[in-house]
Design goal:
Its main location: membrane. One of its GO terms (cellular component) is membrane. Helix 1 (3-36) runs antiparallel to helix 2 and helix 2 (43-65) packs antiparallel against helix 6 (153-176). Helix content is 27%, strand content 26%. The chain is built from 7 helices and 25 strands. The longest helix has 34 residues, at 3-36. The N and C termini lie far apart (91 Å).
Length: 507
């Protein structure tokens, strides 16, 4: 086959491809879904349909005006934009349970995912066509010096039919969506020509440019850590219990305090089996009662399931511990003086000769939540059967407070609740900032760095039974735990790790 014949075949295939994308996904969606099944596209659906129309029109431009680099460039740009739209649309529904979705489903797949298939097909087919395309010089030769190509009758009919399909889509868009500044509906009602039921809505675009973020609702800033105080949460921390959302029933006083000689800000501290267990970012230390380090590891946070800075370490059973990151990703690990360094290299930058993260009953995983999905956590405790995680407010949502209950045997969400409480007028539990929790006497003691209050939560009744204030001298409370039947609170302030004994008798 000579180059001119290959060129004409290329144009024929390009014409067919452009026609099919307008006739099938666009045409079927318009004529059958729209006029017969009364389906009205949502805002994102219209965007994806428009991108398909643009792709088809550009293909027909190539057929009419010849192969030009700018047309190929526009094909890729529009396809990329369509992929982004369909991915954004699919992302809104990808987490849903079986058979839950939005709009019509074709062969069990909803239309917003079919758009993803169409755009990837465009890239694949364009790549195949260009791979077998004739020499680029033959495109100029085939044009014979003219500025446009002559159209045969079949190709002319393709142009006419395509124009009709596009015009029908314009009509449907006008009826169901309206003209600027009307924007379309996120949840569109059935298509109708009865003006009594037609909705032209302009509320959607008004919120788009208030803040510009590619992360959308996931643009949540990092929580507050001892080693990295939060500066972008829009939260003003104070140490006055009078400002707490729940009135304190009791107050604590400081019995004693000591400075822990340590060269890093301690973010978490607990007393487990006769040892202090501390963490700072991704470093974990096991220390004796005089805070001398017995063993230490540095976590590799990027292996497999990425772990954000550590917010708590709990004992799971006789052998295992679990550490949790603020992104609800965990590592179940164990001590072993004879650990296989090569095997444990995956989890630990340092300490892979003394600790295990690989092996039976060990390893990483993620906690999937529902109510706390867009919130970090800063605390964790357990009752031997369940882990309890507490969300913290952020720059997007300063009202929500959720306790997530995780079954330790399979590390799967069992329940979520916002504890009932006797709140002050206009207050919310989101005014608290829980940096640590401990399970004691069948209750959860949740330490709030903000307003210097401890919320005593009954997990059985899912209620805050009382609130206990602690002294304002404790400026940056990071951890709460019980040692020798007395309550200990760790604070990192004035560049020092200070452990306060406030006694547990009042609690």
């Amino acid at each position: 086959m000579d180059e001119i014949k290959k060129t004409k075949l290329f144009y024929a295939l390009m014409c067919l491809a452009g026609f099919l994308i307008i006739l099938l996904p666009v045409g079927i969606a318009n004529f059958y879904f729209g006029y017969v099944l009364k389906d009205s596209p949502c805002t994102l659906c219209w965007g994806q349909r428009e991108a398909m129309i643009f792709i088809g029109v550009i293909a027909l431009f190539i057929v009419r005006y010849g192969m030009k680099a700018k047309y190929l460039a526009m094909l890729l740009i529009v396809t990329a934009f369509g992929l982004w739209q369909s991915l954004a649309h699919y992302g809104n529904h990808a987490h849903r349970d079986l058979d839950q979705g939005f709009g019509l489903a074709v062969f069990g797949i909803h239309t917003y995912f079919w758009a993803e298939v169409v755009f990837w097909a465009v890239i694949l087919l364009l790549g195949i066509m260009l791979f077998f395309a004739p020499k680029f010089s033959s495109f100029d030769k085939e044009m014979e010096g003219k500025t446009y190509r002559n159209l045969s009758k079949p190709v002319f009919m393709v142009f006419v039919i395509s124009a009709f399909v596009i015009a029908s889509n314009v009509f449907q868009a006008f009826v169901s969506t309206g003209i600027a500044p009307y924007y379309g509906q996120g949840d569109p009602v059935r298509f109708t020509l009865d003006k009594k039921y037609i909705i032209w809505d302009d509320s959607g675009y008004k919120n788009h440019f208030k803040t510009i973020s590619f992360l959308g609702k996931r643009d949540v800033k990092a929580p507050d850590y001892a080693f990295a105080p939060a500066t972008k949460l829009g939260i003003n921390f104070d140490n006055d219990p009078q400002n707490s959302p729940i009135a304190a029933d009791e107050s604590l006083s400081i019995k004693s305090q000591q400075v822990i000689e340590f060269d890093k800000p301690i973010n978490t501290l607990d007393f487990i089996d006769g040892e202090f267990v501390a963490s700072s970012k991704w470093d974990v230390y096991f220390m004796d009662e005089n805070f001398k380090v017995n063993s230490h590891f540095e976590l590799d946070p990027l292996f497999s399931a990425t772990i954000d800075p550590i917010i708590s370490i709990n004992k799971m059973d006789e052998r295992r511990f679990v550490l949790m990151g603020s992104n609800k990703t965990f590592l179940k690990f164990a001590k072993n003086e004879n650990a296989n360094e090569a095997l444990q290299y995956a989890d630990f930058i340092k300490g892979n000769d003394k600790f295990e993260g690989q092996g039976k009953g060990l390893g990483r995983g993620r906690i999937d939540t529902v109510r706390a999905k867009f919130h970090h956590i800063a605390s964790m405790t357990n009752d031997g059967k369940y882990l309890y995680l507490a969300s913290v407010p952020n720059n997007k949502d300063k009202k929500k407070f959720v306790i997530s209950k995780i079954l330790m045997s399979d590390m799967t969400l069992s329940a979520e609740f916002t504890p009932s409480a006797n709140l002050k007028d206009g207050a919310s539990l989101g005014d608290l900032y829980i940096t640590s929790m401990t399970y004691y006497n069948n209750k959860i003691y949740a330490l709030s760095k903000n307003h210097n209050v401890i919320a005593v939560i009954n997990p059985q009744t899912q209620s805050i039974e009382k609130a206990v204030s602690y002294p304002s001298e404790i400026k940056n409370a990071r951890s709460i735990f019980v040692k020798d039947s007395e309550i200990q609170i760790l604070s990192y302030q004035e560049g020092k790790n200070i452990l306060f004994n406030v006694s547990g008798e009042q609690l």
